[in-house]
Amino acid sequence: MSRTLLQDPGLWKEAALIGGQWRTATPHGHSPLINPADGAVLAQLPRCQEAETTEAINAAQAAWGPWRRTPARQRAALLQRWHELITAHREDLATLITLEEGKPLAEARAEVDYANGFVRWFAEEAQRVRGDLIPAGQDSQRLLALRRPVGVCAAITPWNFPAAMVTRKAAPALAAGCTVVVKPASQTPLTALALGELAHRAGLPAGVYNVLTGADTGRIGGVLTRHPAVRKLTFTGSTEVGRLLLRQSADTVKKCSMELGGNAALIVLDDADPDRAVEGILHAKFRNTGQSCIAANRVLVQAPLHDTLARRLAERCRALRVGPGLEPGVQIGPLIDDAAVQRLEALLAEAVAGGATVLAGGRRHALGGRFFEPTVVAGVRPDMQLAREEVFGPVLPLLRFEQDDEAIALANDTEFGLAAYLFSRDAARIWRTAEALETGMVGVNTGLISNEVAPFGGVKQSGLGREGSHLGMAEYLETQYVCWDGLAPAA
């Protein structure tokens, strides 16, 4: 049984967390949780629907009053204790991530550290929320701007980073004095539930952190977006679903933050360091088997470097080890489901039919199932679906360009604007190109850009708001203006 792989079996929860109580069953049955590496059923999770969602919201609303009145220093101490428990249970959390999401264990450990960075950062930020004293136009008045927690927050999180996407939302909400209802992806609930168990052990009061389980995400989301007690909705996922949630949230005018789809371009200028570019491309493309919203979706290489980089990338990709994430040395795990494999096959078939050339990989791996060979494709044109859609898999399209302005135009020719990457050794070209890119984030000479101290988010149809940094705290606060009149004039 998979729970025996954990040092602390108490972190294995097949239950929803509502108002501090573990709910092992609902009238709606259970949803199976599948291990993407072998197709085995890992667990059976209770299916939450409208009634359970309303219960969780009511529990969060009841807990909000006492929680927002809890001194910031005390909230910070509880979050710091949560951080310490996550650190102590790092290996078990990483094992859960690998079992339910499939990523290699080394990457899962790195995700736990990344996720825990948000808990530590926002524990510290809890004590840094400040207002303003505004100079008044009359001596009898004092004008204040206070920062207040927005209220109950609904967090809908994706499957590809099941720990980090929870803490990146829950930690600032809790630090600000909000309560949360988390709906993790139905493919990866175990990590969010384990984090809930550790939050309980840390001393977070009942109802402050709630987790809803099951595959009925549409029914749950419908309640979260329309319930008047939910004052904030935060979502990470596809642009299509983000648009739907925004429409549903409009009737109650919720504060919303959205981290949506991406089509990140990675530009390699002809003066780039080839070694650094190759390493950066591998990090930016193949982390989590390419299943990342900021993965390099298109690699644009200036003509003088194109053939050299194409050859070296193909060689490196052939050497990447594919396999189940719990096996030592594995670098590429399975895709999340069968549909993801079929989608990659369709994108590659369309590109090859249009004249593109597969330099490495290009098919399902010999292991079968949901494993796919790391793939490099040259001769990709901007009009191919492989260059226009979010690939979300270990397939790397290469596009050749001649002039810098051409690369900028290609990179910006998309409705998305989440991230971009740039490799060059010329400071002037770096500044000029980075400032021309229509994205919320730019990595220069690196393929790893995400951390808790920097603002994460996109422009255009890649989202609203920012996560991480001090800006991430602002997403869970409202400004209250106080005009105090009738004071005696100063002597």
General description of the model:
- This protein folds into 2 domains: 2-260 and 462-480, Aldehyde Dehydrogenase, Chain A, domain 1 (3-Layer(aba) Sandwich), CATH 3.40.605; 264-444, Aldehyde Dehydrogenase, Chain A, domain 2, CATH 3.40.309.10.
- With 491 residues, it is α/β, with parallel strands linked by helices.
- It is built from 15 helices and 22 strands.
- Strand 7 (152-156), helix 5 (164-176) and strand 8 form a beta-alpha-beta unit.
- The radius of gyration is 24 Å and the shape is globular.
- The termini are far apart.
- The longest helix is centred in the N-terminal third of the chain and has 21 residues, at 105-125.
- Helix 2 packs antiparallel against helix 4 (105-125) and helix 4 runs parallel beside helix 5 (164-176).
- The chain has helices at residues 50-69, 72-88, 90-101, 105-125, 164-176, 189-202, 217-226, 239-249, 274-286, 303-319, 338-353, 385-388, 404-412, 427-436, 469-474; strands at 16-18, 21-23, 30-34, 41-46, 132-134, 142-149, 152-156, 179-183, 209-211, 230-236, 255-259, 264-268, 296-302, 357-360, 375-378, 395-401, 416-417, 419-423, 441-444, 459-460, 463-464, 477-484.
- The mean pLDDT is 97.
